[in-house]
Amino acid sequence: MAPHLDLNAGAPSGIRWFLSGIDRLGRLDGWIGALCLLTLTCLMLAEVIVRAASNFFGIGPGVVPNAWEYSSYLMAAAFTFGAAMTLRGGGHIRVTLVVGNAGPRLKKLLEIVSSAVAFAATSYLTVSMVIFTWNSFARGQVSISSGTIVWPPMALVTVGMALLALQFLARTIRAALDLPLEDPSMRASNPVE
Length: 193
Known about the structure:
Number of domains: 1
Structural class: mainly alpha
Shape: elongated
Distance between the termini: 26 Å
């Protein structure tokens, strides 16, 4: 096994600690996203099996109660929780026509500006989600179809968005300090492109 390289080693110690912390949170973020995706898969498989048992053998209720509602919560959580690790690993879709043809100084400037704009946008979205989640909690809002309290799934999405915002902040700092923007160890081991 190859030794782990500290891609944040070129940063001042306080900033290195911050960037490394965001990397650790990004890895946790990816694992939570994977767990949400696994749970979603199990829920959908259970729905298929229950429906098949009902249709072919005439047993069971024919449906897993609230499976589609909970699947939507899990899908939203999986998307947002996987986003920070995907960004750090370089897996987000990017249009590199301008950056790819720019000189080093312009490329650095474009990376700083685009990362800062993305940080501002995801921060705004995070604050909006915090307000939305808090209002849902304060009103005791429940799902119409199942009676499920809706603020916990909203909070999961909010945390995922906050982690993505932090990863964009870290990317802005890395671009400004000429540190590697992507960590290949956070990439999928066998990507399909």
